[in-house]
Specification:
Strand content: 15-25%
Largest sheet: 9 strands, mixed
Radius of gyration: 19 Å
Distance between the termini: 23 Å
Helix content: 40-55%
Number of helices: 10
Number of strands: 11
CATH class of the largest domain: Alpha Beta
Number of domains: 2
CATH architecture of the largest domain: Alpha-Beta Complex
Length: 300
């Protein structure tokens, strides 16, 4: 089984060094490690130049979406059977990949008729609690199967998941293409993994496979508590989520959400935020307007 790992990085050298070190300590080593350097301006490029056995791709900063697009494309073209993807602040345990592979092999042995799209690890924050940003979407029924159909194999079926320790099958890339680069950041992972499961592939959550997601805080950010430095991310998040709503629920649902975004959310921002009201009002309105015109092409 040819497994290629992909890490996307931007200006976080100490975390990248830790993430790469964790990959090198895996009990089951990937056949190759691809680093997508998304236009880092710190010492990342110099450090990568000193590292053996890395396939480094340097590009201008295209956001997480563009980074994962590049990494998945490179891994697929190099014949990967599975691609293990993560951000540079994702720190794997020594058995993280082994647990994912054990689970997919157990699923195939038990029910080979069901094609697998992705498996995702359990993401914890630095204090050992589940990371709110990386909770997979587990519904009562996934397609025609109950969510616990593979419980004996240690897997719960998931409709979508984040890019934090996501193992993507070659079949899913061939069938569903790549992440949408135009998303830039936020919701790209939800759209991509949902695209897989909506196409008939199975997604699985493997709690025994664990990573630590080293964000500054354990949060699932919203407009009402975000810091000014997160404002741009929220622009992309609102726009991209509205695009997904249009894609999955249709025009009526989309326009209902647009009306809410223009006329209801601003009152909530004024009521719930303690500061920077005008900044987030503008971000909200700009994102909603951008969503009306946002029609990215899914890359294949």
């Amino acid at each position: 089984m040819n497994i290629i790992a992909v890490i996307v990085t931007h200006n976080r050298l100490p975390l990248l060094q830790e993430a790469v070190g964790a990959i090198r300590q895996q009990l089951l080593l990937p056949q190759q490690l691809i680093i997508v350097n998304n236009g880092s301006t710190d010492d990342t490029s110099n450090w990568l130049a000193t590292q053996p056995a890395l396939h480094v791709i340097t590009q201008e900063n295209q956001g997480a979406s563009g980074g994962f697009y590049t990494g998945l494309t490179a891994a697929y073209e190099q014949g990967a059977d599975w691609v293990w993807i993560m951000d540079d602040d994702t720190i794997a345990r020594p058995d993280t990949l082994l647990r994912l592979v054990d689970s997919l092999q157990a699923m195939r042995q038990a029910h080979p008729q069901y094609p697998l799209g992705f498996l995702v690890s359990r993401a914890l924050w630095t204090d050992g609690h589940p990371h709110w940003m990386n909770l997979p979407e587990i519904n009562r029924v996934q397609g025609v199967l109950p969510f616990n159909f593979f419980e004996e194999q240690g897997v719960l079926l998931a409709r979508s998941a984040s890019f934090v320790s996501l193992l993507v099958s070659r079949q899913s890339i061939a069938q569903c293409g790549y992440p949408i680069r135009a998303f830039f950041i936020w919701a790209d992972d939800i759209e991509y993994t949902t695209r897989m499961t909506r196409s008939g592939l199975l997604g699985g959550y493997v709690p025994s496979s664990v990573v630590v997601h080293k964000t500054k805080t354990n949060y699932s950010s919203d407009l009402y508590h975000a810091t000014p430095s997160e404002a741009t991310k929220h622009f992309y998040g609102i726009r991209n989520n509205l695009y997904c709503r249009r894609l999955w629920r249709g025009e009526l649902s989309f326009w209902s959400a647009i009306i809410k975004q223009f006329f209801v959310i601003p009152f909530r921002i004024l009521k719930k935020r303690k500061d920077h009201h005008w900044l987030f009002l503008r971000i909200n309105w700009r994102a909603a307007f951008a969503a009306i015109l946002f029609r990215p092409v899914k890359p294949f």
